[in-house]
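Quick sanity check, HTH marR-type domain-containing protein:
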Amino acid sequence: MTKSLDAHPPAATDIDFGELAEDLVILSKRIRAVFGIALVETDFHAGQDHMMMVLVPGTDIPVSELAMELDVRPSTVSKMVDRLAERGLVVRLPDAKDNRKTLLRITAEGVRAQARIRTVWAEVGRRLAPKQQEEAAIMMIQIKRLNEAVHAHLLRSR
């Protein structure tokens, strides 16, 4: 990792939030790359896996709601749905209450794909987690808290 060329490095007791931000950006890119490599065997691309895992069998979801859940624009969801619908993993349905809206539903094949994705996610998690269970549990709690904080920030920013 590259470090900034500060003339005076921070004291050991100071938290360098710039360094934290840099580490988070790099970590997020690396983790997404690891998942992308692992997903090759499932024939999913980065982002498609997350979308598939958000879908609940037997429940229709509006594109706009799915976009919010994924923290992406509805147009991004539409592009992903095009590809997944071609594979028979999701179907588009009209919203009986509002013709302007489109609902999505996961198919039986999509549910089977979710199981494959879940297996890949679990394997990646096992590889990246600390070997000590107590340390892994602490890390999981910290990641969940960070995820909640980032999600809350995104909601306030929109």
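Posting the structure with no commentary besides this: The radius of gyration is 19 Å.
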